[in-house]
Specification:
This protein is an alpha/beta fold and 317 residues long. It has helices spanning 9-25, 34-53, 57-64, 72-79, 121-126, 134-150, 167-171, 174-186, 202-206, 227-234, 241-247, 252-258, 276-294, 299-311, and strands at residues 80-86, 98-105, 108-115, 154-160, 192-201, 213-217, 221-223, 263-265. The chain starts with 8 loop residues before the first helix and ends in a 6-residue tail after the last helix.
Length: 317
């Protein structure tokens, strides 16, 4: 069953009428109503297109968090073949907020990792809502170092509200683990491409997004802090999250202009949750193109390219 966001109510009403007419049309004695169905479907499609053409930053935030939006495991299943997950950081334990391993992308061996939020209560708890603890980032470091040793490109998928802020995470060195993961990415001698598929929050995101090419889904968000967190700090009022989202420049369009990301991956009309397979296919094409752009660079050139990219952020104004 499709889940609608509050601002999608006009579309929800039209599509509900379409479903009612289709149910009525199943009655053989009913008068043909196919013309009415076609007319309403066209009207609903046009309304959806108009709505998503002018989303506000806060509405994009809601879309990025949509419960039916494809998650990392969906992208991995759709794009990576022969995927073999690896677990544990070899220092403390396994953290399932970050899933990673090795597989093949378009026939090429790669290291792939990403934050997984989970789709239902059970999996959300298991994956800690995509908020990684230190061992998650240390696992990412272990996998990236293996990829570097064997000359394999690294693909990372970002979808987190931020790193886990619990006391035990701080006790085990959360900040240090994030810094080490960021440092490891900057020093990779292999191409790395990162894709923000939903939320990209704070250091928890940048820890696996310090890449040669940073891509972003059209309706994803990427920021140093959540709109609610920013509102709580700036105005001591989390209900002003919409104001914070508007002023923080968190959308893909703003971040492309600022040079924070390199490309925007188009989503189906109505967002990735309306047609996950189309969204995943578009992401695959964008990642393939990014890897091709980096394919002829040597280790030193890749490191310089990565460093220059992050040093130049914000200079494209």
């Amino acid at each position: 069953m499709r889940s609608y966001l509050d601002f999608e109510k006009p579309v929800a009403e039209l599509e509900a009428k379409v479903e009612e007419l289709k149910a009525l049309g199943e009655n053989r004695d009913a008068v043909s109503i196919s013309d009415d169905i076609n007319r309403l479907e066209a009207k609903a499609a046009e309304a959806l297109k108009d709505l998503y053409a002018k989303l506000t930053p806060w509405q994009k935030t809601l879309v990025a968090r949509h419960p039916q939006r494809p998650h990392f495991i969906d992208y991995c299943a759709g794009l990576i073949t022969d995927f073999t997950p690896l677990a544990g950081d070899r220092k403390f334990s396994e953290d399932e907020a970050i899933v990673g391993g090795f597989g093949r992308f378009k026939g090429q061996s790669v290291c792939v990792l990403g934050q997984e939020k989970g789709h239902n209560t059970e999996t959300r708890i298991r994956h800690n809502f995509g908020m990684a603890r230190p061992e998650g980032y240390r696992k990412a470091v272990r996998l990236m170092e293996m990829a570097d040793r064997f000359g394999l490109p690294v693909l990372s998928f970002v979808d987190t509200a931020g790193a886990y802020p619990g006391i035990e995470a701080e006790e085990r060195g959360q900040a240090e683990a994030i810094a080490r993961s960021t440092e490891t990415q900057l020093g990779l001698g292999v191409p790395n491409v990162s894709l923000v598929i939903g939320e990209g929050g704070s250091g928890g995101a940048i820890a696996i997004a310090t890449a040669n090419k940073v891509l972003m889904m059209e309706h994803a968000i990427y920021s140093v802090i959540s709109p609610e967190g920013a509102a709580s700090i700036l105005w001591r009022d989390s209900t002003r999250a919409q104001d914070a989202a508007t002023n923080m420049k968190i959308t893909a369009q703003d971040l492309l202009r600022l040079g924070v990301i390199d490309a925007i991956v188009s989503e189906p009309t109505g967002g990735a949750h309306r047609d996950p397979q189309a969204a995943i296919a578009a992401a695959g094409s964008a990642i393939e193109e990014a890897l091709q752009d980096l394919g002829n660079m040597g280790p030193a050139e890749l490191r310089d390219h990565r460093a220059d990219k992050f040093l130049n952020i914000g200079r494209k104004l």
